[in-house]
Design a protein that fits this description.
CATH class of the largest domain: Alpha Beta
Oligomer: single chain
Shape: elongated
Order of helices and strands: HEHHEEHEHEHEHEEEHEEEHEE
CATH topology of the largest domain: Rossmann fold
Low-confidence stretches: 1-5, 69-81
CATH architecture of the largest domain: 3-Layer(aba) Sandwich
Distance between the termini: 41 Å
Radius of gyration: 19 Å
């Protein structure tokens, strides 16, 4: 999805929202609604399907039902435990977000769960790069919502690339929150997707504060570097941690400040 005056981005975002709110969207109807050709609409739906936002059928599409699940499956974890674990970490993330804050939320199952919780905050401004999260934010929140712009590519969960990074830097950010999958042997936080990792790295540099979220801190998990541990201000994770992780975080002046309801929160001292 190229950033061409944001017209194609806005149209595709609206298509996702329409698909979520209705049983289905039809190519001909969308063509009339947006004043573009049916070929353009089919291209839009093709890209959105590739990214997992819609499921296409002949001449129509519907919102991907997998995005409506409240507890998405985490590989290797028992299904019954996944939802509560994500919710616990999301609740910890909420504590970092103050009223009137300008916030960037990265893509992910935990960050998606943060969105409804933000209804308790006043005057926030959200910057997002995941179109599915934009739809959720509009459903639950009455606040300013900015979309980074950028490109949909490959298996990436959201908009990425130079356009997304420029859109992210277009506004001041008080805090960014993003999900990580592990820590490498060079003490760098890792993200599963390379494009998202580059975007989150830009967010860390641009934001006043940066907070990482994780269900575990597996030091052997493969991934793509976002930033050094020393660059974040806080971390919220599930209580099941490798013993060495505490020492590693403490070495980088991240001390456990709270342990409650199945999560551990760390803050820079």
């Amino acid at each position: 999805m190229q950033d061409q005056g944001n017209s194609s981005l806005k149209r595709r975002l609206q298509i996702v929202e329409l698909a979520r709110k209705t049983d289905e969207v039809r190519v001909e109807a969308l063509s009339v609604l947006f004043g573009v050709s049916t070929v353009t609409i089919r291209n839009d739906l093709h890209y959105l399907e590739q990214q997992g936002y819609v499921v296409r059928a002949f001449g129509k599409a519907r919102y991907n039902p997998a995005l409506l699940k409240t507890a998405a499956e985490i590989p290797g974890a028992p299904a019954a435990a996944q939802g509560p674990a994500q919710a616990q970490v999301a609740q910890g993330a909420l504590g970092w977000i103050e009223d009137d804050a300008s916030v960037f939320l990265g893509s992910g199952r935990i960050t998606h769960r943060v969105l409804p919780l933000l209804a308790s905050r006043q005057g926030i401004a959200l910057t997002l790069h995941d179109l599915a999260m934009v739809a959720t934010a509009r459903q639950f929140l009455d606040c300013a919502i900015h979309v980074t712009g950028g490109t949909l590519a490959g298996d990436e969960p959201g908009l990425i690339g130079p356009g997304a990074e420029a859109g992210l830097r277009a506004r001041p950010l008080d805090i960014c929150l993003f999900e990580i999958c592990g820590i490498d042997d060079r003490n760098r936080l890792l993200c599963r997707d390379p494009g998202a990792a580059r975007l989150y790295s830009a967010a860390v540099e641009h934001s006043t504060k940066a907070v990482a979220l994780a269900l575990d801190l597996d030091s052997t998990t493969g991934g793509h570097p976002v930033c050094d541990i020393a660059q974040i201000d806080g971390l919220c994770t599930h209580q099941d941690m490798e013993p060495g992780a505490f020492d590693l975080l403490a070495h980088h002046r991240l001390q456990a400040t709270r342990k409650a309801e199945g999560r551990i929160e760390f803050a820079r001292t």
